């Protein structure tokens, strides 16, 4: 960087800092800033356009254009050269603006007199905030050094905009993060709730974008990078818990952290007057812009590594980032994404969850559903917009979230919540009645659980037992492997809380998206089809044996039901059952009482098991269909990938016919059969399952009421006729036919 520009840029930043420090109104500040930039760039015009809403840019200050057009001139994203700069998030630098593609003549500003145009996006961490423009009469392109200086200034403007430095009365410019924003996402768990934002990872705020002393900032930057490097080295060398996949990521981080060009660019920015953290953010913004444009998967991955690395460095430099705030009242968790373990740590205190990513089939979603916490996923941009403590309404019915809603929306929402409460109350009147359909068939409705905290729902929901107790959730909430005695006490408490109602304990189902922090994870290309569940249990039987013993002891001479997850072939069931036999023998020797009645079941989660030999159906005490997994393998559609998951309906004749063939085989051998995937809790699906022969359905507690209500209204023989007719007609799903028919049922 030539010295002159370096000092010019630094001088300009120095003047900017003084201007910004003056305690004037936001508009006065902006006016001063454009004046300063124009004079130091020797340009006749300098203007700042800021986003009024996601699509509209507004001229907020100008030196050189007609002052009357301030707050009057607006353009849409992509419109004119200013809109194009914002849309492309890249610099437009031209000596002949009127002949540049996209030029839009705005008579109110009198800009036809200017030939040169240089537009610089004002963006913070990839978030477009506005455009900085300089124009001059002389036909010339701005030099790379001038453009660089403007970029540095734009960076500072972005930080100051974020901090609300340009907010004020006459400015008609409202502070960021104060307006109501509606996020349209995807429904993951129904329900409506009102509360206050709690960010899983709070944003880092840079309060000092311009440095007082470049030497001090340079030293801070270098020491921050050094701390970052040492931290990464430690992670890579010392930590035995780091699995191969994580190691690969950290190695990529280390490569970036040691990259000379990354550091050199940040050092140059600091040399030109930015603070250390502003320099890191400038680089990060650049990487994010490239990330949003990158089509190549490898490139995207590397750029998000760089993004994460910049976050780490920012946290080191600012000392911010760890969420130390207390949970607010009625907390609504806002996050990019979250794993089931992390969600369990928050516990049931959460009133709602809004995720930028997420998936309906993930275990975090299952946990939220089990707890009946409204969950909206795919709410793009919410982690950038929301601040801790903001009011937020989560509408799980429609898959939307209102951030900082105005009063009208809040009032309408309160009505919605009241209506929901009334609907739930309707179900309490049938809570103690059986799910007996008009044809006389009684379907047993049970609930899914996984934590002690779920058990009180047994009474409240009217569930007749626990059809699936996901034991791995207990393992996920801990930071070390639980001991046998601890587990046995816990299972005992579960059985006590169930007060004699049956509980089907599923042995540990880890792997896939359920990763225990204290167990060495495996580097597998596709963990959902990898070493998980019973495969781990049989290959490394230590934990399985410990768990089986704990279960036998918990039963303490009473009845016990245990099922093994992810059994893909008869042989696996035989081996797992042999482990159970061994555990019984061991407990006998140790003098512990054996269960009065032991039922050993298998979860049918892979299509292969439906074709197991007859002997399997005769031998197994019961079968529970894990529809979440079964469906993903039946359709070869990842349950966590929203794009493909949504393509396939559970009520497609192919899947329904397949389920019916399982029900028929079970009926032939009198093998008790249940369905415990999420679909069992969806009323129309539940109705169809019952109609094709499922006698037990296990679902999240909040679904028991609605499912029972529907089952009691219908004759299952008629439902079966509707299904058969729809399949014969070649419908791609029987859903429509069943739903239409239901309209006429009283
Ligand atoms: C299933 O796959 O349907 C199931 C109940 O197990 P999980 O969702 O825990 O994988
Ligand atoms: Mg499963």
Describe the structure.
This protein is α/β, with parallel strands linked by helices and 746 residues long. It has 4 domains: 3-162, Beta-Lactamase (2-Layer Sandwich); 181-203 and 323-420, Phosphohistidine domain (Glucose Oxidase, domain 1); 214-318, Enzyme I, Chain A, domain 2; 429-743, Alpha-Beta Barrel (TIM Barrel), CATH 3.20.20.60. Helix content is 46%, strand content 17%. The strands form 3 sheets. The protein has an 8-stranded mixed beta sheet. The structure holds phosphoenolpyruvate and magnesium ion. Residues 366, 468, 470, 509, 605, 626-629, 676-677 line the site of phosphoenolpyruvate. Magnesium ion is lined by residues 605, 626, 628-629.
Beta-strand residue fraction = 15-25%
Could you say what the CATH architecture of the largest domain is? Alpha-Beta Barrel
Instruction: Give the class-level CATH name of the largest domain.
Output: Alpha Beta
How many domains make up the 3D coordinates? 4
Q: What is the 3D shape?
A: elongated
How do the strands of the widest beta sheet line up side by side?
A: 7-14-13-9-10-11-12-8
Low-confidence stretches: 1-5
Average predicted confidence as pLDDT: 88
- The CATH homologous superfamily of the largest domain is called Phosphoenolpyruvate-binding domains
Report the CATH topology name of the largest domain. TIM Barrel
End-to-end separation in angstroms reads: 79 Å
Largest sheet: 8 strands, mixed
Q: Please tally the helical runs, counting DSSP H or I stretches of 4 or more residues.
A: 28
Q: Percentage of helical residues?
A: 40-55%
Number of strands: 23
Structural class: alpha/beta
What ligands are attached or bound here? phosphoenolpyruvate, magnesium ion
């Amino acid at each position: 960087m030539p010295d002159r520009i370096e000092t010019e840029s630094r001088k300009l930043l120095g003047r900017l800092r003084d201007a910004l420090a003056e305690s004037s109104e936001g508009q006065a500040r902006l006016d001063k800033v454009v004046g300063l930039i124009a004079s130091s760039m020797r340009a006749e015009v300098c203007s700042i356009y800021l986003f009024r809403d996601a699509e509209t840019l507004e001229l907020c200050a100008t030196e050189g254009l007609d002052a009357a057009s301030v707050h009057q001139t607006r353009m849409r994203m992509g419109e004119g050269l200013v809109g194009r700069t914002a849309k492309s998030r890249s610099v437009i630098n031209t000596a002949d603006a009127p002949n540049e593609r996209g030029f839009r003549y705005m008579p109110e500003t009198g800009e036809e007199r200017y030939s040169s145009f240089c537009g610089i996006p004002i963006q913070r961490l990839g978030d477009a905030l506005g455009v900085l423009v300089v124009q001059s009469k002389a036909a010339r392109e701005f030099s790379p050094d001038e453009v660089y200086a403007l970029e540095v200034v734009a960076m500072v403007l972005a930080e100051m905009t974020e901090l609300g430095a340009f907010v004020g009365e006459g400015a008609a410019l409202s502070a960021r993060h104060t307006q109501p924003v509606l996020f349209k996402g995807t429904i993951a768990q129904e329900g409506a709730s009102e509360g206050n934002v709690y960010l899983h990872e709070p944003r880092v705020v840079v309060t000092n974008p311009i440095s007082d002393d470049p030497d001090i900032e340079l030293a801070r930057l270098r020491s921050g990078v050094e701390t970052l490097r040492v931290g990464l080295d430690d992670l890579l060398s010392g930590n035995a818990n780091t699995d191969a996949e994580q190691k690969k990521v950290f190695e990529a981080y280390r490569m970036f952290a040691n990259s000379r060009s990354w550091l050199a660019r940040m050092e140059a920015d600091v040399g030109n007057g930015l603070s250390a953290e502003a320099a890191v953010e400038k680089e990060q913004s650049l990487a994010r812009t490239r990330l949003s444009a990158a089509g190549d998967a490898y490139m995207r991955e590397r750029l998000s590594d760089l993004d994460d690395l910049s976050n780490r460095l920012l946290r080191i430099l600012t000392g911010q980032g760890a969420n130390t705030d207390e949970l607010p009242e009625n907390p609504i968790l806002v996050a990019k994404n979250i794993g089931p373990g992390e969600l369990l740590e928050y516990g049931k205190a959460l009133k709602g969850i809004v995720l930028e990513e997420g998936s309906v089939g993930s275990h975090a979603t299952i946990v939220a559903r089990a707890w009946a916490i409204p969950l909206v996923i795919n709410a793009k941009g919410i982690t950038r917009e929301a601040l801790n403590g903001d009011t937020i309404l989560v509408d799980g019915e429609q898959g939307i979230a209102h951030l900082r809603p105005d009063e009208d929306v809040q009032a309408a929402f309160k009505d919605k919540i009241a209506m929901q409460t009334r609907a739930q109350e309707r179900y309490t009147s049938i809570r103690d009645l059986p799910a007996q359909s008009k044809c006389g068939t009684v379907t047993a409705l049970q609930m899914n659980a996984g934590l002690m905290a779920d058990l009180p729902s047994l009474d409240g929901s009217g569930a007749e037992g626990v059809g699936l107790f996901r034991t791995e959730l207990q393992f996920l909430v801990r930071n070390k492997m639980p001991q046998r005695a601890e587990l046995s006490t816990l299972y005992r408490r579960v059985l006590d809380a169930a007060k004699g109602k049956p509980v089907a304990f599923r042995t540990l189902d880890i792997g896939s998206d359920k990763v225990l922090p204290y167990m060495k994870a495996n580097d597998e290309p596709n963990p959902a089809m990898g070493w998980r569940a019973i495969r781990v249990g049989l290959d490394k039987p230590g934990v399985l044996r410990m768990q089986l013993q704990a279960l036998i002891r918990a039963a303490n001479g009473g009845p016990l039901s245990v099922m093994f997850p992810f059994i893909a072939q008869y042989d696996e069931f035989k081996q797992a059952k042999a482990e159970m036999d061994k555990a019984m023998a061991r407990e006998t020797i140790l003098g512990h009482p054996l269960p009065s009645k032991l039922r050993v079941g298998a979860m049918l989660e892979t299509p292969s098991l439906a074709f197991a030999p007859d002997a399997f159906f005769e031998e197994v005490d019961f079968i529970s269909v894990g529809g979440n997994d079964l469906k993903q393998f039946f359709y070869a559609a990842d349950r966590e990938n929203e794009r493909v998951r949504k393509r396939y309906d559970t009520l497609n004749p192919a899947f329904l016919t397949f389920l019916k063939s399982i029900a028929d085989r079970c009926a032939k051998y009198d093998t008790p059969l249940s369905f415990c995937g999420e679909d069992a809790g969806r009323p129309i699906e539940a109705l169809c399952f019952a109609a094709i022969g499922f006698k037990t359905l296990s679902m999240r507690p909040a679904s028991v009421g609605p499912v029972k209500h529907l089952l009691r209204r219908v004759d299952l023989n008629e439902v079966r006729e509707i299904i058969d007719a729809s399949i014969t007609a070649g419908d791609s799903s029987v859903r429509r036919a069943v739903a239409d028919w239901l309209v006429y049922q009283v």
